[in-house]
């Protein structure tokens, strides 16, 4: 089987324009705000996305009919990585979580009417969104079947009641995609339904921001309550009781695009560290000439290239229309841990400068730590990977 890792000229051009935007516009803004996305607010988001639109790089993932570039997963990878070179880059291109994953989900599952109402404005950044699945213990988390939020039929629609938390981007979102149980009981593998809930619905309330280690998600990570939240039948996304199936439509690609974006930060950390050790002199020589320093640099390059290769393989499977559950789990687990290693080594290479706020490495270290938990902790993915391997050998 021939393997061609080249991208078309249109993708290469998109990457080059993204790199220029990030270098000239996004990085200076990120440095002024210390990498804290809330500091730029909605006004800053709009300005960044206007700059991306002017550069012709906005929404590379969204369908063309809704203002995007319609890139498949393999072609997204270098563009997302280029955007991820700055914490603010994904926001600028409108490919940050959770909106990026929600665009993919709506494009695959929504009705034509729902696409016009929700996908069209989301794809081009006219609104933001959130994905409301995670609940406080003992509710849904790494095990979505523990879902406790309920949706009960009422005349003309549904009433949603439940308690969500760690809902990324909820503050300021124009709508939520809420996962609620429409049949069965917590622990059942089926019986969930997705609902589109407008932010103006009086039954949906953002309670508070959950203070977290990371600060690169606009709209924060929020606690949200659905109390007597009534929606119409037209709010059902997909089919009733098929929510868990649709979640897989979203989660496989979303895990992989997370890897693309964070790989960009890994490269940024490596560039900062190498730039420093190439100039810094100790004991009569440049740091870059010392063997232990060279090992750290080399290990970073190995992790970067291995991560990119795993992402490419998972993307190829997804582009073939396969679930790629095993490969996306492998890629997510490896890349989350590799990026942490890369940034940690970069901090070590830069010494006191690395832990200072004079450069953003300490901010990156805080940001990438959470990636080993989001979209499934490494331990859960390892458990799932091992189960699939054992099952394959049992037949």
TrEMBL record:
Cofactor requirement: FAD
Domain Acyl-CoA oxidase/dehydrogenase middle: 130-229
Keyword ATP-binding: no
InterPro entries referenced in this protein's UniProt entry, alphabetically: Acyl-CoA_dehydrogenase, Acyl-CoA_Oxase/DH_mid-dom, Acyl-CoA_Oxase/DH_mid-dom_sf, AcylCo_DH-like_C, AcylCo_DH/oxidase_C, AcylCoA_DH/ox_N, AcylCoA_DH/ox_N_sf, AcylCoA_DH/oxidase_NM_dom_sf
GO cellular component: cytoplasm
GO MF term set: acyl-CoA dehydrogenase activity; flavin adenine dinucleotide binding
Keyword Nucleotidyltransferase attributed: no
Ranges for domain Acyl-CoA dehydrogenase/oxidase N-terminal: 38-125
Alphabetized UniProt keyword annotations: FAD, Flavoprotein, Oxidoreductase
Limits of the Acyl-CoA dehydrogenase/oxidase C-terminal domain: 241-389
Annotated GO biological process: fatty acid beta-oxidation using acyl-CoA dehydrogenase
SUPFAM superfamilies: Acyl-CoA dehydrogenase C-terminal domain-like (SSF47203), Acyl-CoA dehydrogenase NM domain-like (SSF56645)
Pfam families according to UniProt: Acyl-CoA_dh_1 (PF00441), Acyl-CoA_dh_M (PF02770), Acyl-CoA_dh_N (PF02771)
Assembly, per entry: Homodimer.
Family, per entry: Belongs to the acyl-CoA dehydrogenase family.
Protein name in UniProt: Acyl-CoA dehydrogenase
Species for this entry: Actinophytocola oryzae
């Amino acid at each position: 089987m021939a393997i061609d890792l080249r991208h078309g000229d249109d993708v290469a051009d998109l990457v080059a324009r993204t790199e220029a935007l990030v270098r000239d516009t996004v990085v200076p803004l990120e440095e002024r705000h210390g990498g804290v996305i809330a500091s730029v607010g909605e006004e800053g988001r709009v300005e960044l996305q206007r700059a991306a639109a002017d550069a012709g790089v906005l929404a590379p993932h969204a369908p063309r009919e809704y203002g995007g570039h319609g890139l498949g997963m393999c072609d997204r990878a270098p563009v997302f990585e280029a955007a991820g070179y700055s914490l603010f880059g994904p926001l600028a291109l409108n490919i940050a979580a959770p909106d990026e994953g929600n665009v993919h989900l709506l494009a695959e599952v929504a009705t034509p009417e729902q696409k016009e109402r929700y996908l069209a404005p989301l794809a081009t950044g006219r609104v933001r969104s959130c994905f409301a699945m995670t609940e406080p213990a003992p509710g849904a988390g790494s095990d979505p079947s523990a879902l406790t939020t309920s949706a009960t039929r009422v005349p003309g629609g549904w009433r949603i009641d439940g308690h969500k938390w760690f809902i990324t981007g909820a503050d300021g979102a124009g709508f939520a995609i809420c996962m609620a149980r429409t049949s069965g009981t917590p622990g059942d593998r089926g019986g969930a339904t997705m609902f589109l809930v407008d932010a103006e619905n009086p039954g949906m309330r953002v309670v508070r921001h959950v203070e977290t280690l990371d600060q690169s998600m606009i709209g924060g990570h929020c606690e949200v309550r659905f109390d007597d939240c009534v929606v119409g039948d037209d709010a059902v996304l997909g089919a009733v009781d098929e929510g868990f199936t649709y979640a897989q439509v979203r989660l496989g690609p979303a895990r992989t695009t997370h890897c693309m974006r964070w790989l960009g930060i890994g490269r940024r950390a490596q560039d900062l560290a190498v730039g420093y050790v190439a100039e810094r002199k100790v004991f009569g020589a440049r740091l870059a000439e010392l063997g232990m320093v060279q090992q750290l640099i080399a290990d970073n390059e190995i992790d970067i290239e291995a991560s990119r290769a795993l992402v490419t393989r998972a993307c190829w499977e997804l582009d073939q229309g396969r679930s790629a559950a095993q490969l996306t789990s492998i890629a997510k687990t490896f890349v989350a841990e590799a990026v942490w290693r890369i940034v940690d080594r970069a901090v070590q290479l830069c010494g006191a400068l690395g832990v200072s706020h004079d450069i953003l490495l300490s901010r990156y270290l805080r940001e990438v730590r959470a990636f080993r938990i989001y979209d499934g902790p490494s331990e859960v993915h390892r458990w799932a990977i091992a189960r699939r391997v054992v099952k394959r050998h049992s037949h």
